[in-house]
Specification:
Helix 10 packs antiparallel against helix 11. The protein folds into three domains: 274 residues, Orthogonal Bundle (Transferase(Phosphotransferase), domain 1); 115 residues, no CATH class; 178 residues. Helix content is 58%, strand content 8%. The protein is α+β, with helices and mostly antiparallel strands and 617 residues long. The strands form three sheets. The chain has a five-stranded antiparallel sheet, covered by helices on one side. Strands 6-8-9 form a three-stranded antiparallel sheet. The protein is built from 20 helices and ten strands. The protein is rod-shaped and about 160 Å long.
Length: 617
């Protein structure tokens, strides 16, 4: 601040211009501009005032030679001092040299009878941006715009494009504010009031004072950049106008100025020392405004074009951003559903309802803007939540399917899912084996066939001995039981695929093979004890009863019937040894009948169905 220098006007919302001559490089500055020769009187008739700025008044006028209305800008100080002439000619040169759709065209520079210069410009019918910011209904009424934020942002983009064009010609505006933006009846924005513009470099230094030489206070305090408020000309540059663009965005988002206040000195001090608080609004726009309003010029967006493109990106991507915002709400619901204390098995409807809503929102955002970083990250987070939830509840397959949709998943989580899938596969295999072991229908045709053959053999052999009235020797019994053992083992090898598929089948074939084996051992033991073959035959019933009862206790309860029959036969044969063969045969008949009753009909039906299927094929 420079309180010893004159400041006009004394208002924080109006443009401050320097005192006489302070923007000039020297006393001969005015000679850098061609001297206007056209006269105001006669050629132009001035009427009512259109507006009053910090350094000039703009009036409506009529240009006689072309019979059209124009605007004439006249310095507030009507004196024709060299500094005043230079300042007016400076603005006229800047405005005329820029030649951009966002800059009001200059038609002429004329002087009045006192030698005071006047700028003749196109008359722009319309409204200042300030008026439209304060009257949203007029925007919809005049321009048919219902998306007010989008409309204001497009105005700001046009302002930034105009400022970027000026920067390309070496011109720094220094006084960007809503009052200095005029909106034409077609919605076209114009950047006004280039009266305190300065030269960035040699491209404009022959007509404008250099920015680096400015130490006087100039600009609008409510929007002023810190280097402007400090009078630090060495720091003036493109980031200075970017700061002012950030102030315009701040005003659009908040309807407030970056540096509020009424006392001029207080506002200027705040502009120099206080960074505006981040504005409310869409996060990307708030971030852009915050970045542009940083105190250090090096931390601001590098150019006005970069600033404009950031807004353009927001407008192009805000539909995706709105979907992402909705998705974040669903993602919060998903986190809440997955975080029930001590309850990983939260209701599927709550979890997958929230997940579906979040996924739909994020995927739609990615359709509108492929590669949207926030949508990509949030969708990944939602999928990882599902993976962790399914893993916690022991649903390894569901966790694996969810993990397959996650690109580059966390290594620890991927390993945990792999372990869970392997454990689940082992449990599933064990369950399958258990189910197969207890499937009574597995191999029933083969089991029925074996039961029929073995039952018939066990029944007919004792009957043959009884009919023949012949007692076999110990050696003959050993040979008969050994042959029976080999026969049963042969059946087991032949039918191993069918008979090995269930616990019942394996128990039947093993018990059937165990019977002759135990009887062989019984014969050998009886021979050592000096017992005769007829005694051994009686004990065969005891062996059969024990094996059937063991089978009944483990896999087939109905085997208890032949087991009891065998035990009864043992007692009966011990009482009536002469009927030992007949009694043994009768016991074997009971066994065969029970086996065929349990398995025969189903086995026969299965065999018939299989044959019919083969014929159809």
């Amino acid at each position: 601040m420079h309180p010893d220098r004159p400041i006009a006007p004394r208002s924080s919302s109006a443009t401050i211009t320097t005192g006489a001559g302070e923007t000039l490089r020297g006393p001969d500055e005015a000679r850098a501009y061609p001297t206007p020769t056209a006269r105001l009187g006669g050629a132009y008739t001035c009427f009512d005032t259109l507006g009053v700025g910090g350094s000039a008044v703009v009036r409506r006028a009529h240009q006689a030679v072309l019979d059209r209305e124009v605007a004439v800008k006249t310095p507030l100080r009507g004196a024709s001092s060299p500094a005043t002439v230079a300042r007016v000619l400076q603005e006229a040169w800047v405005t005329g040299a820029l030649e951009h759709p966002g800059v009001v065209p200059v038609h002429d520079v004329v002087v009045d009878d006192d030698g005071c210069p006047h700028i003749v410009m196109r008359r722009i019918a319309g409204w200042t941006w300030t008026e439209l910011l304060n009257d949203p209904a007029r925007i919809e009424r005049e321009f048919g715009a219902r998306d007010l934020l989008g409309w204001h942002l497009r105005v700001l983009m046009a302002v930034a494009a105009t400022v970027h064009h000026a920067h390309g010609l070496g011109v720094l505006h220094r006084d960007l504010k809503p009052d200095n933006v005029m909106i034409g009846p077609g919605g076209e924005p114009y950047v006004l009031d280039w009266g305190i513009a300065v030269a960035l470099d040699e491209r404009a230094a022959h007509r404008l004072p250099r920015a680096s030489e400015q130490s006087a206070l100039a600009g609008t305090p409510h929007y002023m950049a810190p280097e402007m408020a400090r009078g630090d000309g060495a720091s003036l540059g493109v980031p200075t106008d970017v700061y002012l663009l950030g102030g315009l965005l701040y005003a659009v988002l908040t309807h407030r100025v970056p540096h509020p206040g009424e006392e001029l000195e207080t506002v200027v001090r705040a502009a120099a020392e206080v960074t505006p608080a981040p504005p409310e609004g869409p996060p990307r726009l708030a971030a852009l405004a915050t970045e542009a309003l940083r105190a250090d010029p090096a931390e601001r967006p590098p150019t006005a074009e970069h600033f404009r493109r950031t807004i353009q990106g927001y407008l192009e991507e805000r539909d995706a951003d709105a979907l992402v915002e909705a998705g974040h709400g669903a993602l919060a619901d998903l986190r809440a559903a997955c975080a029930i204390p001590g309850e990983p098995n939260a209701p599927d409807a709550a979890v997958y309802g929230a997940f579906s809503a979040a996924r739909l929102a994020f995927e739609q955002a990615l359709v509108r803007l492929p590669g949207h970083p926030e949508a990509t990250a949030a969708l990944r987070a939602a999928r990882l939540l599902i993976v962790e939830r399914e893993l916690a509840r022991g649903a390894a397959d569901a966790a694996s399917r969810a993990l397959a949709e996650v690109s580059d998943p966390p290594e620890a989580l991927a390993r945990a899912v792999q372990r869970a899938v392997a454990d689940e596969a082992r449990r599933s295999a064990a369950s399958s084996r258990l189910l197969a072991d207890h499937d009574a229908g597995a191999g029933i045709r083969t089991r029925s066939f074996v039961s029929l053959i073995v039952g018939g053999t066990f029944t007919l052999a004792p009957l043959y001995a009884a009919v023949a009235h012949r007692d076999a020797s110990m050696a003959e019994l050993l040979g008969a039981f050994s042959g029976l053992l080999c026969f049963v083992l042969g059946l087991g090898v032949w039918a191993r695929d069918s008979l090995g598929r269930s616990l019942l089948n394996r128990a039947v074939i093993r018990t059937t093979a165990a019977a002759p084996l135990v009887e062989i051992v019984l014969l050998l033991g009886a021979d050592r004890l000096g017992l005769g073959p007829e005694t051994v035959v009686i004990f065969v019933n005891l062996v059969g009863g024990a094996l059937c009862i063991a089978l009944a206790a483990t896999v087939e309860p109905w085997m208890l019937v032949p087991g009891v029959a065998y035990l009864g036969a043992f007692l009966t044969a011990a009482t009536v040894p002469a009927l030992r063969w007949e009694i043994l045969s009768a016991s074997n008949v009971v066994l065969a009948c029970v086996a065929l009753a349990r398995w025969g009909p189903e086995g026969l039906r299965s065999w018939v169905e299989l044959r019919a299927a083969r014929r159809r094929a």
